[in-house]
Design a protein that fits this description.
With about 160 residues, the chain is α/β, with parallel strands linked by helices. It contains 3 helices and 8 strands, in the order αααββββββββ. The structure holds copper (II) ion (CU).
Length: about 160
């Protein structure tokens, strides 16, 4: 009997702790709401990624299946060296990602003269990528800092 009372007595504080646990549970509900928000954000993000992938795939697959993988990829890179773009003229498929590497010891940019694309500042030794326009055409570009540096990207 005494042991039982002691046991009950021991349970009461424990129960109060559980009752006090109501506050944490509300915190858990808030946490649950947060995780739902994150989940929603994840769905939105994955939808965006899927959209990006599907649009990219539709644009890239013809070029890839064209068998020009080697030639195409080499054309997707522009190197800046000795204050010039190499090659200064490239032809890419619509929406192609073009990587620009600055091998000079000064900052350069690769900037469309019609605001179609712009790498912004590329620090010495660094690379930056931009996406070629989807609309076919020839796009002249310059270095904003050294405007005698010119080139063209043809989208076809
Ligand atoms: Cu420059």
């Amino acid at each position: 009997m005494i042991d039982n009372h002691r046991a009950t007595g021991n349970h009461l504080p424990a129960g109060s702790v559980v009752a006090g646990g109501t506050a944490p549970s509300s915190t858990r509900r808030r946490a649950g709401t947060r995780s739902r928000r994150y989940a929603l954000a994840g769905v939105v993000l994955s939808a965006l990624v899927l959209a990006a992938c599907s649009s990219g795939a539709s644009g890239a697959s013809p070029a890839t299946t064209g068998g020009a993988a080697a030639g195409g990829r080499s054309g997707h890179t522009v190197t800046i060296q000795n204050f010039a773009f190499h090659p200064s003229r490239i032809t890419v498929s619509p929406g192609t990602v073009v990587t620009v590497t600055n091998k000079d010891s000064v900052v350069h940019t690769l900037t469309s003269t019609t605001n179609a694309f712009n790498t912004g500042d590329i620090q010495p030794g660094q690379s930056t990528s931009f996406t070629a326009p989807n609309k076919p055409g020839t796009y002249p570009y310059i270095c904003e800092i050294h405007q005698y540096m010119t080139g063209t990207i043809t989208v076809s």
